[in-house]
Design brief:
9 strands; GCV_H; alpha+beta; lipoyl; three-stranded antiparallel beta sheet
Length: 121
C-alpha cells in the first residue's frame, strides 16, 4: 500500500490502482455522511480532484494519486458512507483506476514513510 501527503492510499494489482482515504484522514474527518465517487470512464491526471467526502465536520476533495481512467467506483458508499469510517483502508475504497503512468507510484510513500510523515503533523 502507498500513501500521499493528502492522505489518500493506493493499493496496486497489475495496472489497476484501488484508491481511498487513509484511516488517519477518516478519523480526522469524523463521521462521514456523504461520499461522491467518480464516474466509471472518467480520466484524471495525478493531483486532480476526483471524489468528495463530507463529514459532520467538513467537506474535502479526494485527489487522484495517479493518472488514469476510472474502471470501477465503490457505489456502496453512496448509501453507506459510514463504510469509510469503519474500514477506510479496505471496504471504504473510492475507485479503481487503470494507471496510465506507473512511474507516478514512485513518488508515493510506503507505510513506514507515511507513519513518519504523520508524526510530523
Amino acid at each position: 500500500m502507498h500513501f500521499t501527503k493528502d492522505h489518500e492510499w493506493v493499493s496496486v494489482d497489475g495496472d489497476i490502482a484501488t484508491v481511498g482515504i487513509s484511516k488517519h484522514a477518516a478519523e480526522a474527518l469524523g463521521d462521514v455522511v456523504f461520499v461522491e465517487v467518480p464516474e466509471v470512464g472518467k480520466t484524471f491526471a495525478k493531483g486532480d480532484s476526483f471524489a468528495v467526502v463530507e463529514s459532520v465536520k467538513a467537506a474535502s476533495d479526494v485527489y487522484a494519486p495517479v493518472s488514469g481512467e476510472v474502471v470501477e467506483a465503490n457505489d456502496v458508499l453512496s448509501t453507506a458512507p459510514e463504510t469509510v469510517n469503519a474500514a477506510a483502508e479496505a471496504d471504504g475504497w473510492f475507485a479503481k483506476i487503470k494507471i496510465s503512468d506507473a512511474s507516478q507510484l514512485d513518488g508515493l510513500m510506503d507505510q513506514a514513510a507515511y507513519d513518519a510523515f504523520l508524526a510530523t503533523l
